[in-house]
Amino acid sequence: MKDTEKRVDDEAPEAVAEEAGAVNDDAAAEVEADEPVAEQDTEQDTEQDTEQDAEPAAGDEAVSERADESAEEPAAEAAEEIEDAIAADLDKARTEAALYLDDLRRLQADFDNYRKRTLREQTARSASASQALVARLLPVLDNFELAVSAAEQSRDFDRMLKGVEMVLGALREVLEGEGLVKIEAEGKPFDPERHEAVIAVEQEDAEPGTILDIVRAGYELGGKVLRPAMVKVAK
User: Fold this and answer.
1) How do 211-216 and 219-221 pair as beta strands?
2) Spatial separation of the C-alpha atoms in residues 151 and 161, rounded to whole Å
3) For 221, which of 135, 195, 213, 226 could close a Cys bridge (C-beta 3.0–4.6 Å)?
4) Which pLDDT score, from 0 to 100, does residue 70 have?
5) Is 155 helix (H, G, I), strand (E, B) or coil?
6) Which of 217, 137, 127 is nearest to 177 (CA)?
7) Please, what is the Cα angle at 174 between 216 and 161, to 5 degrees?
8) Alpha-carbon Rg for the chain in angstroms
9) Three-state secondary structure call for residue 122
10) Side by side, which strands form the sheet with 195-201?
């Protein structure tokens, strides 16, 4: 009995130890089985977090793209409006330029016609004036012919002189009627615009620059010097 009990006592601790080892083995197995699950859960949580982080980023990009598209649409519309306005202004400018060109051509044609008409009128007036002057000089020519004829027949100097004086008076009357004016010179101060000095003479009772005598008469026509008077001047 004692030996049996002793064997039982010796076997009991060994059985307990085996059972404890078996329990430990089971716990280790459970721990090992739990570790992959934990790792899997951790990986799933990380992927979910990444997906959650990625989803807002993708949403932000979509919002940004829509904002860019919304901003581009008004800019495109404004650019089209500007192009339309420029095209309208260009068409308007072209139309105005064409009108101005037509007006310029008409004005040029009118001016050319006016120039030609004025030239014809001036030519006609000159011809008319010449005709009128010649018509007024014809009686003077007739008187000259009569004077010469009378001088040839009578050889009377007094009558010839009287006839020449009458013709000279008629000629002066015609020319003065056309605006011819004799330039006054004798006793006047010398004026280079109206007088032409041909000789300078010393004279005690005359101031230097005073006209002493007229060599050839000068005339003005219409207020302009037609021919300066040739004079003697005191020095």
Assistant:
1) unpaired
2) 9
3) 226
4) 62
5) coil
6) 137
7) 65
8) 68
9) helix
10) 195-201, 229-234, 211-216
Residue 21 has pLDDT above 60, yes or no: no
Mean residue pLDDT across the chain: 75
Q: Quick one: tokens of 80?
A: 């089209």
Tell me, letter by letter, the H, E, C secondary structure of 182-214: ECCCCCCECCCCCEEEEEEECCCCCCCCEEEEE
Tokens representing 123 are: 């030519």
CA distances from 155 to 131, 150, 164 (A): 35, 8, 14
Q: What is the DSSP string of 51-92?
A: HHHHHHHHHHHHHHHHHHHHHHHHHHHHHHHHHHHHHHHHHH
pLDDT digits (tens, 9 = 90+) for 50-85: 444 444 444 555 556 665 656 567 777 888 888 888
One-letter amino acid for residue 120 of the chain: R
Tokens of 99: 């009108």
CA distances from 58 to 43, 48, 49, 62 (A): 22, 15, 14, 6
pTM of the model: 0.46
